[in-house]
């Protein structure tokens, strides 16, 4: 899958994306999805960090390599983490090139609208496909004061302007995160590049969910926009509890699980 093919899916059958971090999940996603995003959400989802702000480039490279080993068909996109690209277009280019060289991913993603346009233009004119991300941008959650729906009322035009700016700068698609349905629909009509919704609208050109959220692995909290397609977290804990009980009662290992000496 190429970035151009994703771009060409604009207005057609919805583009299916999953944010994933490991080889086994990437192998499964590769059979059913168009795009696998190695999201910096990995910091919170798998590493227990309080936000995405302390995710490192090395963390993204390690998970990017793991996902790339499992994905042949789907486009692999890796998030650039907070602090690795915002200072200048040159900083962004160095980080993007490094991530692409280390992981063999096809594109990178960065957060931000109009203020990142110059950087997106700098990268795309130098051969780096960029997936943009506007609306709620978790890396700036401290600056915007929390995880809140974006683009309500007066704020609508700002988000639309951001979406238009990243398109004009050369992004091949744009994530719209936690925006109103009306805004997502309007942006989808306005733009010539695909909109990928998360907490947005089923009229977006595609959807993305975090794998652990959609599998119900993460049980503490469920944002309104998440649909749980499975309840693996509860299943996993039940299995661990049974294992603990079997070990303590010496029911495990049983005859099936042990080796006899040669007769
Ligand atoms: O980090 C992530 O998983 C993301 C998606 C939710 C868009 O940025
Ligand atoms: Na992200």
UniProtKB/TrEMBL annotation:
3-methyl-2-oxobutanoate binds at residues 40-41, 79, 109. Catalyzes the reversible reaction in which hydroxymethyl group from 5,10-methylenetetrahydrofolate is transferred onto alpha-ketoisovalerate to form ketopantoate. It comes from Maritalea porphyrae. Pathway: Cofactor biosynthesis; (R)-pantothenate biosynthesis; (R)-pantoate from 3-methyl-2-oxobutanoate: step 1/2. Its main location: cytoplasm. The keyword Membrane does not apply. It is found in: Cytoplasm. InterPro entries: Pantoate_hydroxy_MeTrfase, Pyrv/PenolPyrv_kinase-like_dom, Pyrv_kinase-like_dom_sf. The keyword Nucleotidyltransferase does not apply. The active site is at 177 (proton acceptor). Belongs to the PanB family. This is 3-methyl-2-oxobutanoate hydroxymethyltransferase. Keywords: Cytoplasm, Magnesium, Metal-binding, Pantothenate biosynthesis, Transferase. Its cofactor is Mg(2+). Homodecamer; pentamer of dimers. Mg(2+) binds at residues 40, 79, 111. Binds 1 Mg(2+) ion per subunit. Its EC number is 2.1.2.11. PANTHER family: 3-METHYL-2-OXOBUTANOATE HYDROXYMETHYLTRANSFERASE. It comes from the Bacteria. It catalyses: (6R)-5,10-methylene-5,6,7,8-tetrahydrofolate + 3-methyl-2-oxobutanoate + H2O = 2-dehydropantoate + (6S)-5,6,7,8-tetrahydrofolate.
